[in-house]
Amino acid sequence: MIAARALFLLLLGAPVLIGAGLTLGTALGWQPGIGRFDLGWQGFAQAVALPGFASSLRLTLITGIGATLGSLAVSVPLGVWLVGKSGAVRFLTPLLAVPHAALAIGLAFLLAPSGWAVRLISPWATGWDLPPAVTTVGDPWGFTLILGLMLKEVPFLVLATLVAAGTRDIAGQMAAGRALGYPPGQVWRLMIWPQLYPALRLPVLIVLGFSLSVVDMALVLGPSNPPVMAMQILRLFGAPDPAMAQPASAMAVILLGVMALSLLAWLAGERAIAGLGRIWLRQGRRGRRGAQLAGPFMAMIGVVLGLGALGALLLWSVATFWRFPNALPSGFSGRLWGSADWLAPALSTLGLALASGTIALCLSLFWLEIEDRTQRRLHLGWLIALPLLLPQIGFLQGLTTGFLWLGLPPGPLAVIWAQLLFVFPYVMIALAGPWRALDPALLATAASLGAGPTRRFFAVKVPMLAAPIATAVAIGIAVSVAQYLAVLLPGAGRVRVLATEAVALASGADRRLAAIMALMQAALPLIGYLLALTLPLWLHRNRRGLRGGAT
């Protein structure tokens, strides 16, 4: 047990803590190049004095908190609409596979002043023969960035809601509330959802932390002058002047403080809203029945935006010439797919995803099997939450310095280790529930037949959990493919993947190349999910019991 804890602390905990510590040390005056440490607050003073700091802070809070509140508000009516519907979880899971960068690029191609949405209604409905002088993508308040974050995070929160609801008698509670004269939406909001929220607290905090520190979507959809704080930090780290490393690190520490205060404020807000909710409950007011239509309406909006973003990417990837305000390109051709350099980044992305996903799966199985054999928990749950709650920009740059100390130069190995910090938590979360729900009687029966722990693991646990294992690997691949900073900083630009190529091309002159990279980035996780759904069925084609059928 001690050796297992030491292994996980070394592989997963130490890199995050060392990276954050080195970032803090640089902010306080440590100069890694010469080993000099001049303790002081000059870095923080320089960071605060940078032009646009206050605006970047304001924009970060607006987009981060706004996206979290919006995602949570939308997930509530969607939850009451989808709960109890068979296949809802299976339908939502692939939506999580769409990488942030690919979704952001497609949304930008859809909502830009010259985007597909404007082209579809011009000039017959708008009279526009030229793109309107209206700022949509990159607006100064970050509304488009908030919309993009919501499109990505709402399925995550709804999925977490449905998983939490699966352990409760939702139908019985809903029937009791309906019998008292409350419409379904009111029963869900006042009686059921408050019971589910404790299980949703960590996913909500993860969404808040990510929204406050997002970089790839901010590069595509957010304003650029001033940008959000995470984007400004990345610019400072990439500045040619080495002296900018100190204010960049200081701003990263400030962002960490902003996130910590936001998380504490959110927890305090929960108590205040709970008090208001109890007052509302005592009043006994019935809601309007028409409110239950909010779920289907919001789902329709999300599907339209998602399909529109995907459609814009598909059209641009095969367009020859597309003049505004034409609704469709003047011609279609697949020649650019044959001449564009997308194969090398795609293979690199796939290789990194398979490596980090496989390692994360092995570590997760090792963690769970050790707990089963010792009948004790490792009590290292903070290793799962820590990388997801801390800003990536806040410790990945320090982690890159730590890798150099270890003699690990920028390259694929450094990127795999950095990606593992984010892939492992999702793989572990996806696998822990089905693993711990496995019927102990099956293992006891195998033990009574003479099977030892190792044979029970390979002959009973792994075959019976083939579907959850395949799903966990698919989730790990999707998380790896979506990583941007975990490739850019530890790889130092030497590792070409679809995420970095797509974001770099999104602001370029050729939308067709950006669309091709974004489509390939979206295709890899979807292929992984399809394999995760079909492979267990093929493996168990002659064993109906392992597929949930009758024996």
Task: Tell me what the structure shows.
This protein is mainly alpha-helical and 551 residues long. It has 2 domains: 1-28 and 335-551, MetI-like (MetI-like fold, Orthogonal Bundle), CATH 1.10.3720; 54-225 and 227-316, Orthogonal Bundle (MetI-like fold). The protein is 72% helix and 1% strand. The protein has 24 helices and 2 strands. It has helices at residues 2-27, 42-49, 53-82, 88-95, 100-111, 116-120, 143-165, 170-179, 184-213, 216-221, 229-237, 245-283, 294-318, 335-339, 343-374, 382-389, 392-405, 412-436, 440-448, 453-464, 466-482, 485-491, 498-506, 511-539; strands at 30-31, 36-37. The protein has a two-stranded antiparallel ribbon. Helix 2 packs across helix 12 (245-283). The longest helix has 39 residues, at 245-283. The model has no long low-confidence stretch (mean pLDDT 87).
Overall number of domains: 2
Q: Report the CATH topology name of the largest domain.
A: MetI-like fold
Number of E-state strands? 2
Task: Report the structural category.
Answer: mainly alpha
CATH superfamily of the largest domain: MetI-like
Cα distance spanning the termini: 39 Å
- Shape descriptor: globular
Average pLDDT, rounded to a whole number, is 87
CATH class of the largest domain: Mainly Alpha
Output the strand order for the largest sheet: 1-2
Strand content: under 5%
Q: Which blocks of ≥5 consecutive residues have pLDDT under 50?
A: none
- Rg on CA atoms, Å: 25 Å
The H/E string reads: HEEHHHHHHHHHHHHHHHHHHHHHHH
The description of the largest β-sheet is: 2 strands, antiparallel
